[in-house]
Each structure stands twice: as C-alpha cells, then as structure tokens.
C-alpha cells in the first residue's frame, strides 16, 4: 500500500481525501451518539443504585437505530448519506419533510477530508502518516463533543493514551521512554493546575477529561511539546472565549478540550520546528 501511494501520489491524495470524507461522516455519528450513549449508561447505573426500574430499554449505539430525520422519522437512504455531496444535492434539507439539515454535518466531513489530505502531504506515504490520521480523527471527534457537551469521553481519550504508547514502542514519533514521560507530565501538569485553582478559589476550573487529553497528546508527541500545546491552547482559548463571551454577553461553560486538540494538531504538524525556531530566536 505504501508503494502504491509512493508511485501515484496524486491518486493517493484523492483517495486519502475521500477516505477522510467518509471518516468525517462516521465522526458525525460518533459526535452525536456517544454522549447520548454515555447519558443512558449513567441513567442505567443510577436506576440500579436506587433500585428503580430503567424505563429506557430501546437499543442505542453507533449503529442502531438507523439514521433518521429527527422531525419526521424519515429513514436516511444510502444515496442521501454520501459525505458532503448528498447535503449539496438535497440543498441542505430532508428529502421528505424539507426540514433544514445542519451545515455542521458537511463541514465536519469536509474538515476531516482536508485535514486527512494535509496529513498525507506533510508526512507522505509512511507509517507515521497512518498513525497521524488516527490521532487527527480522534481529536476532531473530541473537539466537537466537548463543544457540544463539555465532555471528553474516556471511550476516546483513554484508548488514545494507549495508542500513543503503542505507536511509540519502536520510536515512530518519539522514544518509548519519552512517550511515557509525556503521558505522565501531560496528566500531572493540568491536574496540578486544577487543584491549585480549586484550593485558591474553591471552584473547579476544568474537567478530568482535559488531563487525559493532554496525557494522550504527551504520549504521542512527547514532553518537549507539552509547553507549546499548553501555551497555544491557552492563547487560542483566551481569544476565542473572549470573543464568544462578548457576543453572548453572558457567562457560559468554557470547553478547554477543543483548544488543546487544535494545539495538539499544530504540534503534530510542526511542533519541533516551532520549538526550534523559538529557542533559536530566544538565544539571539
């Protein structure tokens, strides 16, 4: 497969982009359904703890039930589920009841396709590219879920930590010992800030999911990239959060995970170059 990508780079780029569109379509399912699955699990656990019957008994997971229009119940046909193109063909409306379909669905698909193509262009047809695709797709899902619910599901963050350690067993990104240190320092850095903030203010400044996401990024990219990720995420979060607060003119829960994810992708693409440039500038 790597030889095929090397011999036909244009075709390979198109294939990676199309794969990204399809993965983006699946991520839309994950983004919507995984939080609902988590809520149902919590409800079932509470019912069991309180010895009460669980009234929610219908099956609900990433594949069941089939995708339907939330208003009229129209079952989405295969030709209506082609990434981006179906939304354009349907003019952004349900084919049955003409209810508008959110623009976010094709945007997630398109963003996933473009980022997948960027991974191919930066890393080329290598094992590193395939691992980078996994990391990219995971952080896209985490970004959107955190925006919607202020949750970073363990079902994604914890496997991402282990995946970072596994891909670095042979030093694909960094030596294994650096991956272990990156995971540990990533978790402990935000954990320490969390408890310091709570001791000073009596309030919780962030969730445990943020610790796990930074631990995952540390496992993939190493401890040397953690200061860059924290700095970039803080700056981007402060700017976007300030603009959002000014527009809404009211306080609202602040999801830090998306900014960690964005900073993590920046570090994945060009973190070592940014750090080297900064250190070189600082020395002069």
Element order, helices and strands?
A: HHHHHHHHHH
How many angstroms separate the termini?
45 Å
Oligomeric composition of the shown chains: single chain
Question: Can you give the mean pLDDT?
Answer: 88
How is this structure best described in words?
With 284 residues, this protein is an all-alpha fold. It is built from 10 helices and no strands. It has helices at 2-7, 9-49, 85-89, 104-123, 127-149, 154-167, 176-201, 208-221, 226-248, 257-283. Helix 2 (9-49) crosses helix 5 (127-149), helix 4 packs antiparallel against helix 5 and helix 6 packs parallel to helix 8. 30% of the residues are buried. The model has no long low-confidence stretch (mean pLDDT 88).
Short note summarizing the structure:
The protein has 284 residues and is mostly helical. Helices cover 70% and strands 0% of the residues.
Observed structural traits:
mainly alpha
List the helices and strands and how they pair.
Elements: H1 2-7, H2 9-49, H3 85-89, H4 104-123, H5 127-149, H6 154-167, H7 176-201, H8 208-221, H9 226-248, H10 257-283
Helix pairs in contact: 2-4, 2-5, 4-5, 5-6, 5-10, 6-7, 6-8, 7-8, 8-10, 9-10
